[in-house]
Amino acid sequence: MRSQSWILVSALLAAPAAAQIESEGSPMAVLQDLRTDGVPIEFVQPPDVGAYLADDEVRPPLPLRYGALMPVSINPADNGVWDELADGTMVWRFKVYSPGAKSIGLEFDDFWLPDGAEIYLYDDTLETVFGAFTSINNQPHEQIAFAPFPGDSVIFEYVQPTGVEDGARLSLGTVIYDYRNVFNLEAELDAQAAQAGGSGAGGSCTVNVNCSEGDAWEQQKRATVRTLSNGGLCSGALVNNTAGDGTPYVYTAWHCNQGSNTVFRFNYQTANCNGGSAPTNQNVSGATNLVNHQSSDGRLLRINNSIPNNYLPFYAGWRNTSTNPTFAMSMNHPAGGPKKICVDNNGATKTTANFQGIGNVSVWRCFWNVGESQGGSSGGPLFDNNGRAIGALSGGPGGTCVATTYFGRLNVFWSNANVAQYLDPLGTGATAIAGLDPFGGGPGSFPTVDSISPTSIQTVSPNSPVVATLTGTGFDGATAVEVDGTPLPASDYAIVNDTTITVTLYPPYKVGTYVINVVEGLLDDSINLGSSFALVPTIDLVNSSPAFLTSTSPAEIYMGGFPLETVYLTGSLSNVPSAFPGVVNLGIGNNGLQLVIIGIFTVDPLLGYAKTEVNLPLPAGTTVYFQAANLSAIFPTFPLTASNIETGVVLF
């Protein structure tokens, strides 16, 4: 580590699979077999790559430049080709070709789509297709940047079906010529990390957010986003405001220099601690730059489009005071890779740091006990012990496995720029607010069900109703509990605490598996409860003591055993045993003198039980006893096996 040499935590680019919100669809080149070899070519003269690379060596350590911005002028009136299909659908296509480019990016300086129109990007062989892009991607500033498309050419297709308003505005003003190969950047970082003893992009000291260190911060994971803008990649955080209205404000660093065509990627994190897949398709494009201040290294953006519900955005709370936090935690995207976590168990302290390209910045200084930050981490939020954002990552000393990181302070940014007009629109003067969770509002995390007790039940249980206990985390915010997709009434489950829920299940019980689901808004987690045939003859008097039997309503009796077993159900007013040598021994009936055979039944192999109803025209206070004896369908032998005894009292 260079103790006195400062570098800005620069933003390294890792290209997304798609920068905008994609919808279902297929290009007309596929659906209508439109040939690609006849699409007119718009040739873009390649830049002097050597000159760009030489200039990169002497540029300040700001976000890494990966592409040359090449001005063009391409529009439907003057370029490309129009095809009219048999149903009247109009299709406009053109092909951008710039020899030697590793990828091609398209930036439209005038962009607006009518409802029903679609756009696709694809290669000559239709092996790689981006889209459909629709009117949901329209921006207030009427511009858009499409994600880098691999290779040195790309075909653009605009589809306007019959009946769709004729009024699309499509003016391509810039082609981004990728001379560094953004698709290999992360692979190169992976290799560097492996040489350092690590296992993935970001280096050997980073910790995935889905390791145990991140268990308590599920909501903060959903607030932390990756941003792609102007050829650079940074991190940021969705933040709440005092109106609690879900306006998609993003707090990040000034030096990240996000523009109007910024792409925000949500939930870009590995599935587990040791790796796994990380989704790359949860993106929203377009932002408005609201407030920025250089010497505070703070920037506030507003995402233009609505964030899809399936992205599960969380709007982090914030604190804008200068009190040192006793605990500090950051989430960010080092090296442009999946989300990582850093933890300083001792909190953060105030100091001033000088960064090339920014100047002196009032910062929080953290010494990580867990994790590190690297290029791409810039703008990543610093959270206090309450999970509230208090800063955005500015930089740190150079080196590998850097344990020290500096964050521009939100309270300084607040005092130097008019941040309050956005984050405190009610004019409350609040110095701290909690986060906003539109999908449950629980104080902890995603509901996670770890275990269930019992793990299985029988189709007939003499102790019905059955109470199953679920253990896990994040239960305090649960909004429903479902069994096989059907919500239970509130009386049938109880949230005991954040780690325990009890669920009451009433007979009859099916053979197979119950899926019990804990729901928090759009979040949920489930666990299976097995249900099997009774291993020994078992009966259940459902509406029995300590409930009640009545002389006016029949008693329900469920009888369990192995499939197709014959069940002899008996009843008595006496609990004195009855012995029938070689046939069966019962615990009721007073030696057969007070024994009644109620009926003979068969265990249904599909249901796992037999059922009957018994009328009891008896005086109040009468105690009734029931017991069954089963004859096996596989090995029918005597004496019969007797079941448990069920008891009920007639109340009226």
Automatic annotation (TrEMBL):
EC number(s) reported in the record: 3.4.21.50
Keywords noted in UniProt: Hydrolase, Protease, Signal
One Gene Ontology MF term: peptidase activity
Pfam family, one: Trypsin_2
Biological processes, Gene Ontology terms: proteolysis
SUPFAM superfamilies documented for this protein: E set domains (SSF81296), Trypsin-like serine proteases (SSF50494)
Signal peptide: 1-19
Gene3D superfamilies: Immunoglobulins, Trypsin-like serine proteases
Coiled coil feature spans: none
Principal EC category: hydrolase
InterPro entries: Ig-like_fold, Ig_E-set, Peptidase_S1_PA, Peptidase_S1_PA_chymotrypsin
Official protein name in the record: Protease 1
